[in-house]
Amino acid sequence: MAKKELTIDLARCQGHARCWAIAPETFEIDEEGYGHVIDGREASFDEENVRKAIKNCPERSILIREVEDAP
């Protein structure tokens, strides 16, 4: 069964910090202003808030992807 995983493409992130402003329980900002996912496992994030952050990211650097469970 596939699970969801949350990531930020750091090559695209420009440090607008909108993800953190919308979902500070899911994202943190480093000393240079770039966003990072605190814990990207599906059970650890509020998908509704994450989807708001995705829509508000001007660089479209926040990704939710499906990953298969390890056997």
Structure report:
By secondary structure, this protein is an alpha+beta fold. The protein has one domain (2-68): Alpha-Beta Plaits (2-Layer Sandwich). It is built from two helices and four strands. It has helices at 18-22, 47-56; strands at 2-8, 27-29, 35-37, 62-68. It has a two-stranded antiparallel ribbon with strand order 1-4. Strands 2-3 form a two-stranded antiparallel ribbon. A hairpin with a 5-residue loop joins strand 2 and strand 3. The model has no long low-confidence stretch (mean pLDDT 91). This is Ferredoxin. Keywords: 3Fe-4S, Electron transport, Iron, Iron-sulfur, Metal-binding, Transport.
